[in-house]
Amino acid sequence: MKACGDEFVESNFASEEYEMKIVSMAAPLGARVEGVDLRNVSRQEIKQLQDALLQFGLLHVPKQALTPQEQIQVSSNFGELEDFPPAANQLAAFPQIFRVASRHGDGHVEVGRYWHSDGSFRQIPTTMSIWYLVQKPEAGGETLFTDMQFAAQSLPPEKLEVMKSLETFHRNGVRHPLFMPHPKTGQLALYLNVGLTGGFVGYTPEASAQLIAELNQHLSRPHAVYAHHWEEGDFVIADNYRVAHRATPISSNQRRILDRTTIRGTGAFWNESQTVQELALA
Ligand SMILES: [Fe+2]
Questions:
Q1: Helix (H, G, I), strand (E, B) or coil at 214
Q2: Ligand 1 centroid – CA 93 distance (Å)
Q3: Which of 53, 60, 77, 195 has its Cα between 20 and 30 A from that of 237?
Q4: Rounded to the nearest 10 degrees, how much is the dihedral formed by the CA atoms of 73, 76, 80, 85?
Q5: The pTM is what?
Q6: Ligand 1 mean position to 117 CA, how many Å?
Q7: Ligand 1 centre from 243 Cα, in Å?
């Protein structure tokens, strides 16, 4: 398994109809999937995409052409979709799609311009986020991604020692371990919503704010951040237990529409029979 995205890995998966190719984006994270029409994938290819997401944390599938209904169908290959309540800026017929936009009237304009994983406020967080670019802006609106496993591994050991037993709390009271083992791989990752976290359990507000600022700086170290420049037809999947993201500013003069679907968390998301301290950092 690829640990920190600094080597080049290429694999080919042949099928009778066409060839799907998964290419590492090299440093710092992610892979690009080529030669596939997501509307028409075999069960074997779905499994390969699921495995690649576990391996790379982020998949970019360019050049797709999806209606909202097709986006829902394609997204469902990765799990059960979350629904969103009816709202003026939602697509009425598609409650599974959360439409992000640069302009009021097109969709939700308030998005996380700070490091976060979608659905972190849930008791069982959202496992994956999936975006499909409908309308490309002329400039701006990149999305930044960072590998939270790599972030955990690259903390100085003395800081890790202090932090590894900490719990965060959201403003709605939901708590999560700051270091969360991945439910499938067991790899520890930092899990922090810089914008919505109320603080650390047992910390003063000042101490919490200081540590959040310190971690924010760590997550933003330039060589660890991948900036995705959106092209029309881009389909991007992030493993929220491994990769955090943040929006960058975009002018309302620009028109950008990004349809997002999210995969509901299932069951315990970390193995409660093991404490976080017992799990070794790889
Ligand atoms: Fe987000």
A1: helix
A2: 22
A3: 195
A4: -40
A5: 0.88
A6: 6
A7: 11
